[in-house]
Write a structure and sequence with these properties.
Layout (H helix, E strand, L loop, with lengths): L1 E8 L16 H9 L6 E6 L15 E4 L13 H14 L3 E4 L1 H9 L3 E4 L5 E9 L11 E8 L1 E5 L5 E5 L7 E4 L3 E4 L7 H12 L6 H4 L8 H12 L6 E2 L1
Parallel strand pairs: 1-2, 1-3, 3-4, 4-11
Antiparallel strand pairs: 1-12, 5-8, 6-7, 6-9, 9-10, 10-11
Length: 241
């Protein structure tokens, strides 16, 4: 089986004792998720939050931008470079997946608009209702996954198609051609980590009672992971493994 060379652009480095010192980071969570699949990967992590980016989209077969508690609307020191890299992936038709912050960053880079949600955080287990399919999507039209976000995409970039959403997040997933794919959700998060993050945020005064009410649902992040693997197979330089 050919291994997919996947570049993980990590835009979060949790330094807290409560979370960062006790749980895997974003890149490890995605690796744990994809390692449940039959498809094999060779991973390369880019610490984008620290300014590290691939020199070109040709470095890997495909790329993924992780989530982050940071806002994709802010101009972080490394944000301009990330915007340029997203546009380079678009121009070269390199497979690029964005999750949560990554979903929003791709939308911003390609000309979409973001905004703060009315009502604060959207958190818990939320079902994305997929109303449009792509060739890499085979399976259920409704996929529950963990969500935790305060910003959201309000206008899609030109040339992008809405794939799915929810009442709380109408633009929950979109695609451009066969090389851009996104989700506002967190397919990589597990129950234990989600509970820890929710308790941590509540400790700073946030009311997440509506989110706790959804936590008895079973998320299906692995379904989305399977779609992502099929999507990544469009990479140009898959190596034998």
């Amino acid at each position: 089986m050919q291994r997919i060379r996947l570049g993980l652009l990590q835009v979060n480095h949790d330094r807290t004792e409560e979370i960062g010192d006790h749980y895997p980071d974003d890149s490890h969570r995605f690796r744990d998720l994809f390692d449940q699949l039959e498809q094999r990967f060779t991973y390369r992590v880019y610490m984008t939050e620290g300014g590290e980016l691939p020199e070109s989209p040709m470095e890997q077969d495909a790329f993924l931008i992780t989530g982050s508690p940071l806002s994709a609307m802010d101009d972080h020191p490394w944000m301009a470079g990330l915007m340029d890299f997203i546009r380079a992936c678009d121009a070269t038709r390199t497979p690029l997946l964005g999750c949560c912050f990554g979903h929003q960053a791709i939308a911003r880079a390609l000309g979409g608009t973001l905004a703060k949600r009315n009502g604060g955080y959207n958190v818990g287990v939320e079902t994305t209702h997929f109303t449009r399919q792509r060739p890499w999507m085979d399976g259920p039209e409704q996929v529950p996954m963990y969500v935790f976000h305060e910003d959201h995409v309000v206008t899609l970039p030109s040339g992008c198609d809405l794939l799915g959403g929810s009442n709380a997040c109408p633009i929950g997933s979109f695609a451009k051609g066969n090389h851009i794919f996104t989700t506002q959700a967190h397919p990589e998060i597990d129950h234990r980590f989600m509970e820890a993050v929710m308790r941590h945020v509540e400790g700073h005064g946030e009311d997440l009672s509506s989110g706790w009410a959804t936590m008895d649902q079973e998320p299906q992040g692995v379904v989305f992971a399977g779609w992502a693997a099929e999507f990544f197979k469009g990479g140009r330089h898959a190596q034998s493994g």
